[in-house]
UniProtKB/TrEMBL annotation, chain A:
Identification of the protein by name: ABC transporter permease
Family named by the database record: Belongs to the binding-protein-dependent transport system permease family.
Keywords carried by this UniProt record: Cell membrane, Membrane, Transmembrane, Transmembrane helix, Transport
Superkingdom of origin organism: Bacteria
Residue ranges constituting the ABC transmembrane type-1 domain according to the UniProt record: 95-304
Localization, UniProt: Cell membrane
Pfam families, per the entry: BPD_transp_1 (PF00528), BPD_transp_1_N (PF19300)
UniProtKB/TrEMBL annotation, chain B:
Protein name: ABC transporter ATP-binding protein
Superkingdom: Bacteria
Protein's membrane topology: Peripheral membrane protein
Record domain ABC transporter: where: 7-246
Organism expressing this protein natively: Devosia nitrariae
UniProtKB/TrEMBL annotation, chain C:
Protein name (Swiss-Prot/TrEMBL): Peptide ABC transporter substrate-binding protein
Keyword Amino-acid biosynthesis listed: no
InterPro entries documented for this protein: AAA+_ATPase, ABC_Ni/Peptide_Import, ABC_transporter-like_ATP-bd, ABC_transporter-like_CS, Oligopep_ABC_C, P-loop_NTPase
UniProt membrane topology term: Peripheral membrane protein
Major subcellular location class: membrane
Domain ABC transporter: 23-272
Keywords, alphabetical: ATP-binding, Cell membrane, Membrane, Nucleotide-binding, Transport
Length: 314, 314, 339
């Protein structure tokens, strides 16, 4: 088991570093200069050059990258060019919202996906199955922001069950937190839940045809045990696999959702930092997202290994 | 006509990492004869078949086919040589390309090997269809339109389409129902008689091997343990494994015959000395220490067992 | 009630004739409902199994033998329409609700599948699968169920039973898997065990071991056993009586020794002749011509007629299952019994 997890961890390392390298290069290759932006239109060429050398931007790119890597190891990601304070202090203020949003959205998506997948598989070709499957196709094809606006219109504007926008941290109480996180999380999770519904449905239908399900029935086990323990255990595995991918999509989709619902999250922070060419903050934000994704995927590997003993011994 | 055998395999071995799948296999097949490899799963019989065709590269040993050493051939020469050796697989569903019509299935090998003109290809295909008792209309149909037995007959026709000198048939009737199996076996023998094809026939079914083969080699854990003419192998088996294999076959009455204990050991951990000793009812001290060599016991029969030495010494 | 058994001549009676009847299947038919209507799969299957007796259900793929077994177990597909009566230990079970049928499974009927690799759960431990069954059916505690499971594994010849309980199906060899399957099937003390091609997926030497084990279990536990197979030679070795099926029909029924030695139905004869003979050299085999007609394309009258070499005009009407010599056959022109 430990060996398996060690192997998975090594495989995850590239998923952290490849995006970092890409972002590092893209930022520096794209037009726009942080020094110029900070000093405004009136700055002289000398002033800009002086600031550039102060920020280390006059060095070759690979030296900059190595310096930055060194910073990661020493837990010093530099100072934000815009905020003029350490990136390591800014990121935590925003990361919590995004992580919570993604986790709640992922949980909602998995619960909705597995439940609807189970219901449709058990009622194959009946009206409820057809209804859900059709809705799921619709759900997959609609973009998150559209769904977010729809949710706001129905539940916040018309029914007034939830606030239109804004954020209460969990420290404000679970109800207050829930009220501000539920709609964004639902909007963020809906596409993935539609995907998981379809996945769960087809995997459940496959599993129900497996001989070991017939064996469980032939042993006289009640249908609730046959479905709940024998079939679910294997049928849920593809959904768990997909959950890892979904987490990645969600972290990306969080940008739009955070902007629509005015959540002070990493996504919004990143968009603003890119606009300001705030290199250290953008790189710190991407590093954080990569790390969150890596940890989530590692957690999913653990769940997978618990569900499937065959994995543990490979 | 030379008296050299069609196929002569000597000291053939294959290791996959630490697993010695085939060890020191030596046999030869005279022109026009059928040689049977019989054994249970893990005996290395299928790997031997693939080695002979050089679909798998041997770790050691030589394969002389039509008087030439296959190992010494360049890739181009090997490809040209392949038209003279064809294979029939176990699974008639997997071995035919579902998107190729029967016409294409039967003409493609000739095209690939550059035999004759397109018109001749078609004539050969038509002739082969007649030989496997199928109507000409089958040409424009696809594999899924045929039953398992019919597909296997088509696979045989395809193998014959390049007019090969050697056919390697790997469990060609194992996937078929008994009544269909008989049709295919008859067909194989008729076609062999007609074309004078040499055949390497692999099967786990002793009854089928007895029906098909002139000479038989019994394999256990990657080695040949006994070899000889059909009537002697079945009439007077010398190796305890051959004896047990024959005794285990159904149709001998339910009396409590000596059954082999245990199962075939893993190829990762082949027992010392004689590989069969862990299951052998007559194993003694020497069997664990010393590997028995293949010894001639007359009538063209050979077996690798210390009991044969002891009997002679006594 | 047991007319077809009583109609056998007394001297050819099954060795188990004096024991009680465990399973009786009378006029069983099964059709699958699909978009086009009802598709008949099995028609008019009747046989009985007594305590301690092994009865073979023989036929090639597609003859309806496996679905007959699933109808007896009450695990036929949802779209199956089943007719006829099934009686288990004197109780008519064919009319029971699905829930009541499920309760008979495990406790009164055990099932052994062809491919234990796929018939056992891939990600639940062997112990979990066995104790789930024992606890549900017999109301045992976890500890009781675990120790009973270990005893059962021990009984079917599995060494280190306690360790195996913690393991998973992929860690076992083919023979061990089938032993676990047998232990599971007999775990709750059923009176009937149905084995569907239990040795087909196994190597020859392992096949013999598993057949011996099944035979031992039948004798020791006095089980009624329904043995589904395509191999008539296995039937001759291990079964008292045999029911030969072709295209959803019973075509011959009788003592297995009689059927193997001197079948009355041309199809049964064909099955025997199609197998290469041990003692024969390079002669030709006698195959049955053509292929089994697919379900839904059965000819009227005798379903074997298109492949039969004894066919005539009479075969256009359906023959009844009648006694010819020592066995019963559904044939207008049965073969003469050989001496």
């Amino acid at each position: 088991m430990l060996r398996y997890l060690g192997k998975r961890f090594l495989l995850i390392l590239p998923t952290i570093f490849v995006p970092l390298i890409l972002v590092f290069l893209l930022l520096r290759l794209s037009p726009g200069d942080p020094a110029g932006m900070m000093l405004g239109d009136q700055a002289t060429a000398e002033q800009i050059a002086a600031l550039r050398s102060q920020l280390g931007l006059d060095q070759p790119i690979w030296i900059q990258f190595l310096l930055w890597l060194k910073g990661i190891v020493t837990l010093d990601l530099g100072n934000s060019i815009f905020f003029r304070e350490p990136v390591m202090q800014i990121i935590p203020r925003y990361a919590g919202v995004t992580i919570l949003l993604t986790l709640v959205a992922l949980t909602l998506a998995v619960i909705i996906g597995i439940t609807l997948g189970l219901v449709t598989a058990m009622n194959r070709n009946k009206p409820i199955d057809r209804g859900v499957v059709t809705t799921a196709v619709l759900g997959i094809s609609l973009p998150e922001f559209w769904f977010a606006l729809l949710l706001i219109f129905i539940f916040a504007v018309t029914l007034r069950w939830f606030p239109v926008a804004g954020y209460n941290p969990p420290s404000a109480g679970i109800v207050a937190f829930g009220a501000t996180i539920f709609l964004p999380a639902l909007a963020l999770g809906v596409r993935q839940s539609a995907l998981m519904t379809r996945m769960m449905r087809s995997s459940m239908l496959d599993v129900l045809n497996e001989p070991y399900i017939t064996t469980a029935r032939a042993q006289g086990l009640p249908e609730s045990t046959v479905i709940g323990r024998y079939a679910m255990r294997t049928a849920a595995m593809p959904v768990v696999t997909v959950a890892g991918l979904s987490a990645g999509y969600m972290l990306g989709g969080a940008v739009a959702i955070e902007i629509i619902f005015a959540l002070p999250g990493l996504g919004r922070m990143l968009v603003e930092a890119v606009g300001r060419r705030d290199y250290p903050l953008v790189e710190g934000g991407v590093l954080t997202i990569s790390l969150v994704l890596a940890v989530l995927n590692l957690a999913i590997d653990v769940i997978y290994a618990i569900l499937d003993p065959r994995i543990r011994y490979q | 006509m030379t008296s050299e055998p069609m196929l002569a395999v000597s000291g053939l071995s294959k290791s996959f990492k630490a697993v010695k799948a085939v060890r020191d296999v030596t046999f030869s097949i005279p022109r026009g004869k059928t040689f049977g490899l019989v054994g249970e799963s893990g005996s290395g019989k299928s790997t031997t078949a693939r080695l002979v065709l050089r679909l798998v590269e041997p770790t050691d040993g030589t394969i002389r086919f039509r008087g030439r050493d296959l190992a010494g051939l360049s890739p181009g020469d090997l490809r040209r040589e392949r038209r003279h050796m064809q294979m029939i697989f176990q699974d008639p569903f997997g071995s035919l390309n579902p998107r190729m019509s029967i016409r294409d299935t039967l003409t493609e090998p000739q095209l690939v090997h550059g035999i004759g003109s397109p018109a001749e290809h078609l004539r050969t295909a038509e002739r082969l269809l007649a030989e496997i008792s199928m109507p000409r209309t089958a040409l424009d149909r696809y594999p899924h339109e045929f039953s398992g037995g019919q597909r296997q007959r088509i696979a045989i026709a395809r193998a014959l389409s390049t007019n090969p000198e050697l056919i390697v048939a790997d469990e060609p009737v194992s996937a078929l129902d008994v009544s269909v199996q008989a049709q295919v076996l008859n067909l194989l023998r008729d076609l062999q008689d007609k074309h004078g094809t040499t055949m390497l026939f692999i099967s786990h079914d002793l009854r089928v091997v007895q029906f098909m083969c002139d000479e038989i080699a019994v394999m256990y854990l990657g080695e040949i343990v006994e070899q000889g003419p059909r009537e002697h192998i079945y009439g007077a088996p010398a190796h305890p494994y051959t004896q047990a294999l024959l005794a285990s076959a159904p149709g001998k009455g339910a009396g409590k015959r000596a059954r082999l204990k245990g199962e075939i050991p893993s190829a990762h951990a082949v027992p010392s000395g004689c590989a069969f000793r862990t299951r052998c009812p007559s194993a003694f001290e020497r069997c664990a220490i010393e590997k028995p060599l293949m010894r001639d016991i007359g009538n063209g029969q050979k077996a690798a067992c210390h009991l044969l030495d002891e009997a002679k010494a006594a | 009630m047991t007319a077809h058994i009583a109609s056998l001549p007394a001297d050819r009676a099954s060795p188990a004739l004096d024991t009680r009847i465990v399973l009786e299947v009378e006029g069983l038919s099964l059709s699958l409902r699909n978009a086009d209507g009802l598709l008949p799969i099995v028609t008019d299957v009747s046989f009985a199994i007594r305590q301690g007796e092994a009865v073979a259900l023989v036929g090639e793929s597609g003859c309806g033998k496996s679905i007959t077994a699933s109808a007896i177990m009450g695990i036929a597909p949802d779209n199956a329409e089943i007719g006829g009566t099934i009686t288990l230990n004197g109780q008519a079970i064919s009319g029971l609700s699905p829930r009541a049928r499920r309760k008979l499974c495990g406790r009164h009927m055990g099932f052994i599948f062809q491919e234990p690799m796929t018939a056992l759960h891939p990600t639940l431990s062997i112990g979990r699968q066995m104790t789930d069954t024992l606890r549900h059916n017999l109301g045992l505690s976890h500890a009781e169920a675990t120790s009973r499971a270990a005893q059962l594994l021990d009984r079917v010849g599995i060494p280190r039973a306690r360790d195996i309980l913690k393991g998973y199906v992929h860690e076992l060899s083919g023979g061990m898997r089938q032993r676990v399957m047998i232990a599971l099937a007999i775990s709750c003390g059923p009176s009937l065990v149905i084995a569907d091609e239990p040795t087909t997926a196994l190597d020859v030497t392992i096949q013999a071991q598993v057949l011996d084990l099944l035979d031992d279990m039948r004798r020791e536990l006095d089980l009624a056993m329904l043995f589904i197979t395509h191999d008539l030679e296995v039937v001759g070795d291990f079964c008292d009586r045999a029911v030969v099926m072709y295209a959803g029909d019973v075509v011959e029924r009788g003592l297995s020794a009689d059927i193997v030695r001197s079948p009355a139905h041309p199809y049964a004869r064909g099955l025997i002749d199609a197998v290469p003979d041990h003692d024969d050299g390079r002669t030709r085999l006698t195959p049955i011509l053509g292929t089994v007609p697919p379900v839904g394309q059965w000819p009227p009258g005798c379903r074997f007629a298109p492949r039969c070499n004894r066919v005539d005009a009479q075969c256009r009407t359906r023959p009844a299952l009648e006694l010819h010599g020592s066995t019963e056959a559904r044939c207008w022109h049965p073969l003469e019994p050989s001496a």
